[in-house]
Amino acid sequence: MLKQSIMAAALMLSSAGTWADWQLDSSQSTLTFLSDKNAGVVEQHAFEVFDVAVSAAGEIRADIELASVETRIGIRNERMREMLFKVAEFPKATLSGNLGELDLASMGAAPQMASIPLTLSLHGSAQTVVADVWVSQAVGALYVSTVNPIIVRAADFGLAEGVEALRVVAGLKTIGQTVPVSFNLRLTNAQ
To answer: Is the Cβ–Cβ distance between 183 and 29 less than 8 Å?
Structure first.
């Protein structure tokens, strides 16, 4: 009985210690979103500057520099910074949540799928979004990728007026008010 208790305690300690501090490898990570204009013209964009960290407790936090939006068209980048995101007032978006329920000890290289509730803070508003993700690890690296895009609705974050302003200035018939966001992250052990 004592032997079983010691083994159970050892297993609990080993699984509690499987999380480490992880830092983003930005050279091998992407954060992208799609826009839809004129009811069917879909374009992919990205944020070029963002940081993600996962603590030893499994807490995840992402900071996204909204001024780093890249649409491959300079004037559109500028308009999105000024008219949509209003980066002078709201320079960053943040995502935070917890990956702690994932069992890294048994994961190995085989990915685990999880639905992670995250708090998205954007443009002065905060909402819960759910990220369906694959998480896997290799020697010294943790990979987190969206299974399905996270759906962000402009109205939920006070961005509908900015989307409309972009539509008018660009002379478009429509710009979609719902944006799918995806990410592929590689994090390395900070220890």
So the answer is: yes
Residues 180, 64: Cα–Cα separation, whole Å: 16
Residue type, 178: T
Nearest to 36 by CA among 152, 121, 145: 152
Place of tokens 């190995």: 108
Q: By the 8 A CB rule, do 21 and 56 touch?
A: yes
SS3 content of the chain, % helix, strand, coil (to 5): 25, 45, 25
Look at residue 136 and tell me whether its pLDDT is greater than 50.
Answer: yes
Q: What integer is the mean pLDDT of 127-151? A: 92
Percent of the chain with pLDDT over 70: 86
- Two structure tokens written together for 136: 């896997």
**pLDDT band at residue 4, thresholds of 50, 70 and 90?**
very low
Mean pLDDT score, 92-108:
82
- SS3 category, 28: helix
